[in-house]
């Protein structure tokens, strides 16, 4: 059975951690991905004691820490830039380990101008293999968000995952417009390219009728996925109300059993 949570980007970006846990429990959300730079304050600068405090807050709450959401990316043609991103990812993985998060979300972020796409896919994949291997030693998954101009297109994104070639590197399905073939139709073919690697799912606004939400949920259910589908929606002056409506729509879209 699918589970419902949120990404703090951006609907909950202004909630501190106690508020976040209280709100999500009351609103019927089971988990959260903590996006970096938000008011929850779960960042690499936390001391060992502060990390233990974060872990305990989640242990004492029914709300699950689904993962940490970073913006680390590896497509740059400059090797020094890529090495820095890899090093920072490894540091963030240690944070995830300390606070009890099972995974870290990373992303590709487009194709550098003038470069051969396959060269870029291979470079990103090599970096992902390295951080995936490192994270495995910490018991942390690397989850690659389908993201970026050119890098969120199919089948290109699937090539990145092929080049990563590591069991600890999974996919964060991002519910992008690019999932839908030009002219409309089923997302099944693109979904199948990475179905066995999906570890988390980001959901956009469920009122977007151009995206086949019912099909997505049916595909996830049929594939045996029983993880989190996470609301990644814009901020609001009334986030509680928006999240109540989102949950109601999510429930209405679930496959009947």
CATH topology: TIM Barrel
Number of helices: 8
What structural category do the secondary elements indicate?
alpha/beta
Radius of gyration: 18 Å
* Low-confidence blocks of residues: none
Largest β-sheet summary: 8 strands, parallel, barrel
Task: Report strand order across the widest sheet.
Answer: 1-2-3-4-5-6-7-8
Overall number of strands: 8
Give the % helix.
Answer: 40-55%
Strand content: 15-25%
Sketch the topology as an H/E string, one letter per element: EHEHEHEHEHEHEHEH
Domain module tally: 1
CATH superfamily: Divalent-metal-dependent TIM barrel enzymes
What sort of overall outline do the alpha carbons produce when their principal axes are compared? globular
CATH architecture field: Alpha-Beta Barrel
On the 0 to 100 scale, the average pLDDT is 98
- What's the CATH C level? Alpha Beta
Amino-to-carboxy terminus distance = 10 Å
Oligomer: single chain
Protein described:
This protein has 257 residues and is an alpha/beta fold. It has one domain (3-253): Divalent-metal-dependent TIM barrel enzymes (TIM Barrel, Alpha-Beta Barrel), CATH 3.20.20.150. It is built from 8 helices and 8 strands, in the order βαβαβαβαβαβαβαβα. The protein has an 8-stranded parallel barrel with strand order 1-2-3-4-5-6-7-8. Helix 4 crosses helix 5 (156-164). The chain is globular, with a radius of gyration of 18 Å. The relative contact order is 0.15.
Short characterization:
By secondary structure, the protein is an alpha/beta fold. Helices cover 41% and strands 16% of the residues. It contains eight helices and eight strands; from the N terminus they run βαβαβαβαβαβαβαβα.
């Amino acid at each position: 059975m699918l589970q419902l949570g949120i990404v703090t980007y951006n609907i909950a970006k202004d909630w501190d951690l106690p508020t976040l846990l209280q709100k999500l429990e009351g609103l019927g959300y089971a988990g959260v991905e903590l996006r970096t730079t938000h008011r929850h304050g779960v960042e690499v600068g936390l001391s060992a004691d502060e990390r233990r405090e974060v872990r305990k807050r989640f242990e004492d709450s029914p709300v699950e820490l689904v993962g940490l959401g970073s913006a680390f990316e590896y497509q740059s043609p400059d090797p020094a830039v890529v090495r820095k991103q890899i090093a920072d990812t490894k540091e963030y993985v240690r944070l995830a380990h300390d606070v009890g998060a099972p995974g870290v979300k990373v992303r590709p972020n487009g194709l550098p101008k003038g470069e051969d796409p396959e060269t870029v896919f291979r470079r990103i994949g090599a970096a992902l293999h390295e951080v995936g291997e490192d994270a495995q030693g910490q018991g942390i998954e690397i989850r690659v968000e389908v993201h970026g101009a050119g890098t969120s297109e199919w089948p290109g994104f699937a090539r990145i995952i092929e080049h990563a070639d590591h069991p600890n590197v999974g996919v964060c399905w991002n519910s992008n417009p690019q999932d839908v073939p030009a002219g409309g139709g089923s997302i099944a073919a693109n979904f199948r390219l990475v179905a066995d690697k999906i570890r988390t799912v980001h959901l956009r606004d469920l009122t977007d009728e151009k995206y086949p939400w019912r099909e997505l949920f049916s595909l996830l259910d049929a594939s045996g996925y029983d993880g989190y589908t996470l609301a990644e929606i814009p901020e609001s002056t009334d986030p509680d109300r928006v999240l109540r409506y989102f949950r109601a729509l999510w429930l209405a879209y679930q496959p009947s059993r």
